Amino acid sequence: MDIQQIIFWTLSILTLGLAIGVIMSRNPINSVLFLILTFFCISAHYVLMNAQFLAIVNIIVYAGAIMVLFLFVIMLMNLNSDTEPQKNFLVQFAGVISGGVLLLVLVAALKTTLTGLEGKNIDLTQSTDIGLIKNLGKVLFTDYVFPFEIASVLFLSAMVGAVVLGKRDKDLKVINQ
């Protein structure tokens, strides 16, 4: 067993443990913090797959922006035991059934995938340049430059619209005079 496999299995066990911590934690703040650590472990998996761009985007977007949003929403909701809804047996039973069906589908998909790979030699030790930023930038600015520029104009107009909608009426009166 080489060092890359040891790192992979360590990260996998850590990711699964943190994901279970997200589900099992009774405190919503701790649950969000477990989720942030899970995203960091998933980003480490991306680095192992030589997809550095996906790792950085995962950290910036999910572990950064979206988790901060989750934390603010949880803090603004002011959750405590008085406002917590009562647990219903039927809802718990439906959750267990749904989880069992999901597990069954995942096991069936894994079995189908493994039977399709029998007799095929796949060399996972070969390094590829598929996930590198250089290749993504080259394709983005050669083959897809027009859709990229259209998206940038749409994002710019959305930002300007958000600023205009966010202005108060008296601020707009000052601008119009």
Helix and strand topology:
Elements: H1 3-24, H2 28-48, H3 52-77, H4 89-116, H5 133-142, H6 145-166, H7 169-176
Summarize the structure in words.
The protein is mainly alpha-helical and 177 residues long. The protein folds into two domains: 3-143, NADH-ubiquinone/plastoquinone oxidoreductase chain 6, subunit NuoJ (Four Helix Bundle (Hemerythrin (Met), subunit A)); 144-177. It is 77% helix and 0% strand. The protein has seven helices and no strands. The radius of gyration is 23 Å and the shape is extended.
Short description:
By secondary structure, the protein is mainly α. The chain is built from seven helices and no strands. Helix 1 packs antiparallel against helix 2 and helix 2 (28-48) packs antiparallel against helix 3 (52-77).
Residue share in helix: over 70%
What percent strand? under 5%
What is the CA-atom radius of gyration, in angstroms?
23 Å
Question: And the CATH topology of the largest domain?
Answer: Four Helix Bundle (Hemerythrin (Met), subunit A)
Total beta strand runs: 0
- Unreliable stretches (pLDDT < 50, length at least 5) are none
Number of helices: 7
Order of helices and strands: HHHHHHH
CA(first)-CA(last) distance: 73 Å
Task: Please identify which CATH superfamily of the largest domain we are dealing with.
Answer: NADH-ubiquinone/plastoquinone oxidoreductase chain 6, subunit NuoJ
CATH architecture of the largest domain: Up-down Bundle
